[in-house]
Amino acid sequence: MTNSVSTPTSRLSLQRATDADWDDIITTDARAFAMRNPLPDDERADLRGKVADDDIVLVRDTGLPSKPLVGVSMFYRMSMSLPGAGVADAAGLSWVSVASTHRRRGILRTMLTEMFGQWEAENYTFAILTASEGTIYERFGFGPACFSNTVSITPGHAPMRGDQPKDATVRFADVDEIAAAVPDLHARWTLTTPGALTRTPAWWAPILADRPSERPLPASGLHYLLHDDGYASYRIYKNENGGVRGEVNEVFAVTDDAHSDLWRVLTNLDLIPSLTATIPVDDPLRHKLINARDVSITGLRDEMWLRILDIPAALGSRKYAADLDAVIEVTDEFRGHGGVFTVSARGGDAIVAPAAETATPTVKMDTSVLSSIYLGGIRPSAFAAAGRLSVDSPTTLRALDQAFTTDQAPFSGTFF
Ligand SMILES: CC(=O)SCCNC(=O)CCNC(=O)[C@H](O)C(C)(C)COP(=O)(O)OP(=O)(O)OC[C@H]1O[C@@H](n2cnc3c(N)ncnc32)[C@H](O)[C@@H]1OP(=O)(O)O
């Protein structure tokens, strides 16, 4: 189904994707993201398996004879764990690109206006994305919400505390064994972590296929480590001079023991002089080593951005770590869905309602700030210190910090 909408610029035509658009979609995104073009059929099928054509917004320049595709954006229908309990649908914006020939004419803004209209009509409470740059999406109400550390370890020289377990709890597994065990392990892990994204079979298929054409060069295929309560995968890189390094692809552990046992193997990989990994910012690995300095933190990145689309629904659907009474004023310049809301949290649950006109806000912030604090990844007091959140008193700020904190730092675990 196509759905044509006229845009403020008459030569530009906004439409939904059809089968016939896919060559152009790949070509346009290949230019923006240095992707191969044409994409091998299996990789193209992987991508198409995750997104419906109706969820792809395209812009063509109909003023030019070839009517080139100059704008692409799409969203995945995803599920995200919320603080404390529960899972919510989230629209995962991705593959956004505008042709270099057509930038800064409002095409991104036009595509996002169309997407937001759809998400609001479908009652999505959240939109999420992984950002190519840090300065594009705040104007649309997104805020960085999950963070990760990149770390480096020297296997064999980063001993962990405690003895090797007498019986091996971790084993190497082949892809069939992994395919049978890992979706369930990953689903169990998502319930432990706010921001964690659920993976459907369409998401697992390309991960498990580990296609040679998609591997970073010069990398090995994935090696899998399996534990009853977790798993890890890693690659080994060998360059033309024979230099070797390892890269952990992912570690998902449902229990502390599984985390320790998997890392005990990873920190002991033979003949790999250096191992890198991307881990949650509160990952306890360092504290499990005899010398915490054996883990070098080489970077901090925003892993996922969040955009609250429906403020009362969002605030009412997470759990709170402390009681809270606040009148929160939220601005939403892009969509105008801000307002003043009373939030009353008791025993973990909050009742959220539009405030009476006479109510005086005790907290003020932008939607992007609310989205950044929502999953527990940034404390409200950090935004207050930055002048981006204001409160009527230090007591209110302390109560906000205590209410919004989460047991685990949020971590999405899936790039999209
Ligand atoms: C979720 C994802 O897919 S992340 C991937 C995003 N895509 C890329 O990085 C690929 C390469 N870049 C591009 O394709 C384009 O430059 C885009 C998509 C980032 C921007 O597209 P454009 O059509 O040029 O943006 P548009 O003209 O609609 O600008 C909208 C606003 O964003 C701002 N903006 C656009 N690009 C950038 C940027 N790279 N950095 C900061 N601000 C930006 C504009 O100034 C404008 O601001 P305003 O409306 O508040 O005045």
Automatic annotation (TrEMBL):
What is the superkingdom listed in this entry's lineage?
Answer: Bacteria
InterPro entries listed in its UniProt record: Acetyltransf_17, Acetyltransferase_Eis, Acyl_CoA_acyltransferase, Eis_dom, NAcTrfase_Eis, SCP2_sterol-bd_dom_sf
The protein's UniProt keywords, in alphabetical order, are:
Acyltransferase, Transferase
Q: Where is the Eis-like acetyltransferase domain?
A: 195-308
Give the coiled coil ranges: none
The segment(s) forming the Enhanced intracellular survival protein domain are: 312-411
The residues the record assigns to binding acetyl-CoA are V96, S97, V98, R104, R105, G106, I107, L108, R109, S132, E133
Q: Which Gene3D superfamilies is this protein grouped with?
A: 3.40.630.30, SCP2 sterol-binding domain
Q: Which residues form the active site?
A: Y137, F416
Question: Which HAMAP family does this chain map to?
Answer: Eis
Quaternary data: Homohexamer; trimer of dimers.
Task: Name the protein family.
Answer: Belongs to the acetyltransferase Eis family.
Query: What is the protein name for this chain?
Result: GNAT family N-acetyltransferase
Species assigned in the record: Gordonia amicalis
Upper classification of the organism: Bacteria, Bacillati, Actinomycetota, Actinomycetes, Mycobacteriales
